[in-house]
Design a protein that fits this description.
40% of the residues lie in helices and 21% in strands. The chain is α/β, with parallel strands linked by helices and 307 residues long.
């Protein structure tokens, strides 16, 4: 095994000389004697066999080679400080990894805000983000694959707080035959046409939110694929309103005139997998989630906002 001839301490001294403008100033900043600072740099140059500094008047300046080497040394010093910060965080019980499962219905712009606000406070914690569909959130909880979960259902054995309601709207392409009827539609009308749904992502696949009991049904695994199919006029679907705002605005999708049930709602909840002893990173993330949701939706007393 090769052992480096130089030390981080030597490179830190060199950096201080450059930043402070001289040996005396660096010695004062580092709380060392000037002779020890001079010795460490001289020893470093001797070990490397290369001139790192040159004296210009009363100031010490880096040589071209010295500037190249110090740029790399600064990266090593930053890595060392980050390593020490990580060790301190782990010693405080801060998780090295945080597993975050989020229902695919959760608004992506809110998710990005949450992650942006968590990142500066993460203390090098790795985030493992998993997006779930319907009962797949049950699986990640029961299989202990997540620490914090935003789910459409709170399974038995877990506690959750209501976060927000997701509104669904029955839609189809403007050229779809259902729009051509030019009247309020009933369930019989819908059953004569293709209904496009997203498959439950859970192992047991027990949820069928937004499905009609009809044989004319196509099932896909991706919400994005369903959107493209409905926009192409292949069928109709109940889709999360906030996910199709641009299609509604452009006229690519048009709400169906249903006599009953044009709009539906599904509640999302915030669940901490280990509610008794959550880690500090999990607590920080949960706090940010609540703050972002409250700021965006302006919670009303006793109610849950709809998106």
């Amino acid at each position: 095994m090769k052992i480096p001839r130089s030390t981080l301490e030597q490179w830190q001294v060199l950096q201080a000389i450059v930043e402070c403008g001289g040996y005396a100033q660096a010695a004062e900043a580092l709380h060392r004697s000037q002779s020890s600072v001079s010795y460490m740099v001289a020893k470093l140059q001797e070990q490397l066999g290369i001139e790192l500094l040159e004296i210009d008047g009363r100031r010490a300046r880096l040589t071209q080679n010295g500037a190249t080497l110090l740029r790399k040394a600064r990266e090593l010093l930053d890595d060392a400080f980050q390593l020490e910060e990580l060790a301190a965080s782990l010693n405080e019980g801060w998780e090295s990894e945080l597993r975050f499962a989020v229902d695919s219905l959760f608004p992506s712009e809110l998710l990005i805000q949450i992650l942006q606000e968590f990142e500066p406070l993460a203390r090098h914690t790795r985030v493992n983000l998993e997006e779930t569909i319907l009962s797949a959130s049950d699986d990640v909880l029961r299989e202990k694959r997540a620490d914090v979960v935003i789910a459409n259902y709170v399974p038995s054995g877990f506690l959750g707080d209501a976060l927000l309601d997701i509104e669904f709207l029955a839609v189809a392409h403007p050229g779809h035959p259902l729009h051509g009827l030019n009247r309020d539609l009933n369930e019989d009308d819908l059953e004569r046409h293709l209904h496009i749904v997203v498959r439950d992502g859970g192992v047991s696949a027990t949820r069928d939110f937004g499905w009609l009991n009809t044989a004319q049904r196509w099932t896909v695994t991706s919400p994005a694929t369903r959107t493209e199919m409905v926009c192409a006029g292949l069928g109709f679907a109940w889709m999360a309103t906030h996910k199709i705002q641009s299609q509604l605005a452009s006229g690519t999708l048009k709400p169906l005139r249903l006599r009953v049930g044009q709009k539906r709602k599904l509640s999302l909840s915030l669940i901490i997998a280990n509610a008794e002893r959550p880690g500090p990173a999990a607590c920080q993330l949960v706090s940010i989630i609540r703050t972002v949701i409250a700021r965006h939706c302006k919670y009303k007393a006793g109610g849950c906002p709809a998106i």
